[in-house]
Specification:
The protein has helices spanning 23-30, 51-57, 98-106, 112-135, 142-147, 149-159, 166-177, 184-207, 213-220, 225-256, 266-274, 306-309, 344-361; strands at 8-9, 35-38, 44-48, 63-64, 139-141, 283-285, 289-291, 294-296, 301-304, 366-367, 389-391. It is of the alpha+beta class. The chain has one domain (8-391): Cytochrome P450 (Cytochrome p450, Orthogonal Bundle).
C-alpha cells in the first residue's frame, strides 16, 4: 500500500473529436494503483479505471454515495448528486439502510415479469415512431425523431405522464445533463420546473389514481409524500436520456456492423462498448480505504470510470471490437452492487425492440453523413449524439 501521490492528470471530461473511450483510459489502467485528478471545481479525486477496482469501489461499505459527506466529488454545484435537503427522495445519493427502503418499494415496478407485460405498449410506441419517420419522407434526425421520443413516451406511460408533455421533459432533462451547454443557473431552473410539474402530477394521482407507477407508490405509502417528487424526477432522468443515448449509439454501431442486425445479443454489447454513464457513479471515502494498493483517505472523492472498466483488456478480449458473441458478459454499464440500475430490465427490452423493429421496417436505413462527421456529445456526464442524420 502506498500513501504517496502519483502525478496529477486532467479530469476526463469529453473532448471534441476524441474517440470513446479516450485513449488515456488505457494509459491510466497501466499505471500502478489509482490515478489522481482534480474536478473542474478544484476538488481532489481518484480515478478508478480497472474493472475489478471499479466493482470493488461500488461495493465497499467504507465508500459512500452520499453527497453530504465532505469531499464528495460533484463536478459542479448542479452537476452531480443532489443532497436530500435539495431534492428529497434522490435515493441514489443515500447509503444502506436508507437507500434500501426506496429500492424495496421500486423493485416490483421493474421486474422481468412487469417489463414483459409492458412489451406490447413498448412495441406500439416504437412502431408509431417508425410510422412517423416513414410518413415524413426518406430522411430524418434519428435522435430527435426516434431515440429521444421512444424512452420519453415509455417512461411517461410508466409514470402516468400525458404524452403531450414529452417536449417539456426532453428539453429540461437535456439542460440538466449538459455541462458546457448550460449554466448552473439554467440547470437549477430546469430542476425546479420539473419538480413543480411532478408535484402537480402527484396531486392529481392522489385524487384520481390510475394504473401507473405513481398511483401504485401512493397506495403503498412506502415513500413519504415529500420524497416522491425526487424519486420520480430521478426515474424520469435515468429512464429517458440514458436510454435515448444508447438507442442512437447502438443504431450507428449496427449500421457499421450490419451482420449483427436482428441479433438480440447486440444489446449487451452496445451497452458495454458505449458505456454512456461513464461519469455517473460518484463516490467518497468515509474511512481510510485501500483500492489497488493505493491509500485513499477519508474525505477524498472517487470517480469510477465505467467506460474504462468496460474496456479493460484483462476482462474483455479485444475490448474495442464490437463482438456480441463474446463470452464475457459482466459489464458494469448499469453499475454494480446495491446501486445497480433499477431499470436495467426495461432498458434492455426498449433497446431490443427499438433495434429490431427499426431495421425490420426500414431495411435500407443508412447514415446521411460520414460517421466521423456525426456530432457526438462531449458536454455532459453522459455520452451520446446530438443528432443522427439518416436516410433510406
Amino acid at each position: 500500500m502506498t500513501g504517496t501521490e502519483p502525478p496529477v492528470v486532467g479530469f476526463p471530461l469529453r473532448r471534441p473529436g476524441e474517440p470513446f473511450p479516450p485513449p488515456r483510459y488505457e494509459e491510466y489502467r497501466q499505471q500502478q494503483g489509482l490515478v489522481l485528478s482534480y474536478l473542474p471545481n478544484g476538488n481532489k479525486c481518484w480515478l478508478v479505471t480497472r474493472h475489478q477496482d471499479v466493482r470493488e469501489v461500488l461495493t465497499d461499505r467504507r465508500i459512500s454515495s452520499n453527497p453530504d459527506h465532505p469531499g464528495f466529488p460533484n463536478i459542479s454545484a448542479t452537476m452531480g448528486v443532489p443532497r436530500q435537503e435539495q431534492i428529497p427522495g434522490w435515493f441514489v445519493g443515500l447509503d444502506s439502510p436508507e437507500h434500501d427502503r426506496f429500492r424495496k418499494a421500486l423493485i416490483p415496478e421493474f421486474t422481468v415479469r412487469r417489463v414483459r407485460d409492458m412489451r406490447p405498449a413498448i412495441e406500439r410506441t416504437v412502431d408509431e415512431r417508425i410510422d412517423a419517420l416513414l410518413a415524413g419522407g426518406n430522411a430524418a434526425d434519428l435522435v430527435a425523431e426516434f431515440a429521444l421520443p421512444v424512452p420519453s413516451l415509455v417512461i411517461s406511460t410508466l409514470l402516468g405522464v400525458p404524452p403531450v408533455d414529452r417536449d417539456f421533459f426532453e428539453s429540461r432533462t437535456r439542460t440538466l445533463i449538459a455541462i458546457r451547454a448550460s449554466t448552473d443557473q439554467q440547470r437549477d431552473t430546469a430542476t425546479r420546473e420539473l419538480l413543480r410539474y411532478i408535484n402537480r402530477l402527484v396531486a392529481i394521482k392522489e385524487k384520481w389514481p390510475g394504473d401507473d407507477l405513481i398511483s401504485r407508490l401512493l397506495a403503498t405509502g412506502a415513500i413519504r409524500a415529500q420524497e416522491l417528487s425526487g424519486v420520480l424526477l430521478l426515474l424520469l432522468i435515468a429512464g429517458h436520456e440514458t436510454t435515448a443515448n444508447n438507442i442512437a449509439l447502438g443504431v450507428v454501431t449496427l449500421l457499421a456492423n450490419p451482420e449483427w442486425k436482428g441479433d438480440d445479443r447486440a444489446v449487451e454489447e452496445t451497452l458495454r462498448i458505449h458505456s454512456v454513464a461513464d461519469l455517473v457513479s460518484l463516490r467518497v471515502a468515509v474511512e481510510d480505504v485501500e483500492i489497488a494498493g493505493q491509500l485513499i483517505r477519508a474525505g477524498e472523492g472517487i470517480v469510477p470510470l465505467v467506460g474504462a472498466a468496460n474496456h479493460d483488456a484483462e476482462v474483455f478480449a479485444c475490448p474495442h471490437a464490437f463482438d456480441p458473441a463474446r463470452a464475457e458478459r459482466h459489464h458494469v454499464a448499469f453499475g454494480y452492487g446495491v446501486h445497480q440500475c433499477l431499470g436495467q430490465n426495461l432498458v434492455r427490452v426498449e433497446l431490443e425492440i427499438a433495434y429490431r423493429r427499426l431495421f425490420e421496417r426500414i431495411p435500407t436505413l443508412e447514415l446521411a453523413v460520414p460517421i466521423e462527421e456525426l456530432p457526438f456529445k462531449y458536454d455532459g456526464v453522459l455520452c451520446g449524439l446530438h443528432e443522427l442524420p439518416v436516410r433510406w
